[in-house]
Amino acid sequence: MVRLLQIEFIKLWNNRASKVLIVSYFVLLCSIALVAAVKFDIGPIQFHLAEQGIFNFPYIWHFNSFITAFFKLFLAIVIVSMMANEYSNKTIKQNLIDGLSKKEFILSKFLTVISFALISTVFVFVVSLILGLFYSDFNEIGIIFSGLEFLLAFFVKLVGFFSFCLFLGILVKRSAFALGFLILWQIFESFIRGIIRWRFFDGETTDMIMGFFPLNAMWNLIKEPFTRLSAVQTAVNQMGEEIVLNYNVHWYEILIVLTWTAVFIYGSYALLKKRDL
Amino acid sequence: MSIILTVNHLTKKFGYLTAVKDLSFTIEKGNVYGILGPNGSGKSTTLGIVLNVVNKTQGDFSWFDGTTTTHQALKKVGAIIERPNFYPYMTAIQNLKLVCKIKEVSESKIEEKLELVGLLDRKNSKFRTYSLGMKQRLAIASALLNDPEILILDEPTNGLDPQGIHQIREIIKKIASQGTTILLASHLLDEVEKVCSHVIILRKGEKLYSGRVDGLLASHGFFELKTNDLEHLKIYLEKHASFGQVKLENGCITAFLKEEMNAGELNKTLFDQGITLSHLVKRKESLEEQFLTLTKNKSN
């Protein structure tokens, strides 16, 4: 397993474009801390974002994992191109001839995906922990480490998304087209949602059905955290409305994403096995 | 003699096209094999199948008498298929280190093999800066990293200039002299003739011949003769029991032997008959001629 990771590391780290993207991704993950610096001081109105409770434990786990998940697009480019380049350089053929089995080849890519997701999760954990310790109003150990299921959801979300990218890379064999396909798929899912909502079911049923589509399932893992802020809720309550949202991470949502991950990885393997190179 | 590769009734179909048809052969240790055949005769497909990058339709093959899996066996094989494939953004050394990781061998041989193919002074240049000849030589170095039991080369001199072709051939000869089994696919007959002891001849995916190069046609060679009275000579030879076909072309008689006879013996016999020769050469058919005869015979 270490050997497979080393192989992939040599391939990625010697590629300048990948290296730049990976480094900037992790820098961006840290940059979430910059939110803390958002501060308006206009005469009587003083606004300090960090003081608004977004860095309170356990809310911070939710907020940070939601925001940082957007940066995954950077790594998506790396992953798609690391797969597609093997085809365009024909190095996949050489790798197999040199004695890497097809299973090992896919496994080495999947392990890389897992590593990326794992390192990202650890990063988000550390950055959030530090931010929280600085700004949170509650600092009891029990509260700090509650709500960590958002980090698990974050990890699963990244693994699922990257596996999807991997699969597209193998399927399409060209990085630009694979990324295009990813966007196309996103549009396709929205389109399907529109059709179902318009023709067949009410909002709730539509949401349930859409929960089975890969990108939607990944999105569902971590719900938007903004309406959970007490400031926002107060404002809404004053307008006489009430927001009823279930923010929790549900086990079946994780299961759906994990199933998709398995489908994508097995699909990549099956494609590779079936194809003549 | 130990068997390195056995191929049994291998068939590969690409849709309606049959690229390899019921092919069987064995590769034994220590020989240099050539796979011959015109373009599109299934050479690369056959190699692709035994190297696990092309899926077979029927039949089977086994490495090292079936004692290991194909995946493990490939670590003891060095192979170059068509164009050299490496990561363009990595240097020669980095690429070879990666191959070492894949083959699970130590990195200690990298310098030695680069030296062998004459790339040591360019070891830190990126692969994309290499010329085609250098790329091909790097591929050979990479294939040799594990000191393979067998080296498989598919058209190793394709697209190279004469100097590059010469360099590659010298390297192949050097490797062959060290006792490594070599399997060389090529459509260049003189290339195979120069380095191979055994040949497998394919045409449209079918095997026409496999065995020793000199046993390709059970022929005893032929004489090229010139004399003043060609007609007289021709009539004499046609009556002679040792000769088969006798041809008169461009003032030169070509007489094919049916049994072994040396040139001195013929010269003496003819002189006794009152025929003095001005030109006498005994030759074996070149591989090219044998190949053409063979492919022609089979197509009739």
From TrEMBL, chain A:
<keyword id="KW-1133">Transmembrane helix</keyword>
<feature type="transmembrane region" description="Helical">
    <location>
        <begin position="110"/>
        <end position="135"/>
    </location>
</feature>
<feature type="transmembrane region" description="Helical">
    <location>
        <begin position="141"/>
        <end position="169"/>
    </location>
</feature>
<feature type="transmembrane region" description="Helical">
    <location>
        <begin position="60"/>
        <end position="84"/>
    </location>
</feature>
<dbReference type="GO" id="GO:0005886">
    <property type="term" value="C:plasma membrane"/>
</dbReference>
<keyword id="KW-0472">Membrane</keyword>
<keyword id="KW-0812">Transmembrane</keyword>
<feature type="transmembrane region" description="Helical">
    <location>
        <begin position="176"/>
        <end position="196"/>
    </location>
</feature>
<dbReference type="GO" id="GO:0140359">
    <property type="term" value="F:ABC-type transporter activity"/>
</dbReference>
<dbReference type="Pfam" id="PF12730">
    <property type="entry name" value="ABC2_membrane_4"/>
</dbReference>
<feature type="transmembrane region" description="Helical">
    <location>
        <begin position="20"/>
        <end position="40"/>
    </location>
</feature>
<feature type="transmembrane region" description="Helical">
    <location>
        <begin position="249"/>
        <end position="272"/>
    </location>
</feature>
<protein>
    <submittedName>
        <fullName>ABC transporter permease</fullName>
    </submittedName>
</protein>
From TrEMBL, chain B:
<feature type="domain" description="ABC transporter">
    <location>
        <begin position="5"/>
        <end position="229"/>
    </location>
</feature>
<keyword id="KW-0547">Nucleotide-binding</keyword>
<keyword id="KW-0813">Transport</keyword>
<dbReference type="GO" id="GO:0005524">
    <property type="term" value="F:ATP binding"/>
</dbReference>
<dbReference type="InterPro" id="IPR003439">
    <property type="entry name" value="ABC_transporter-like_ATP-bd"/>
</dbReference>
<dbReference type="InterPro" id="IPR017871">
    <property type="entry name" value="ABC_transporter-like_CS"/>
</dbReference>
<comment type="similarity">
    <text>Belongs to the ABC transporter superfamily.</text>
</comment>
<dbReference type="GO" id="GO:0016887">
    <property type="term" value="F:ATP hydrolysis activity"/>
</dbReference>
<dbReference type="InterPro" id="IPR003593">
    <property type="entry name" value="AAA+_ATPase"/>
</dbReference>
<dbReference type="InterPro" id="IPR027417">
    <property type="entry name" value="P-loop_NTPase"/>
</dbReference>
<protein>
    <submittedName>
        <fullName>ABC transporter ATP-binding protein</fullName>
    </submittedName>
</protein>
<keyword id="KW-0067">ATP-binding</keyword>
<dbReference type="Pfam" id="PF00005">
    <property type="entry name" value="ABC_tran"/>
</dbReference>
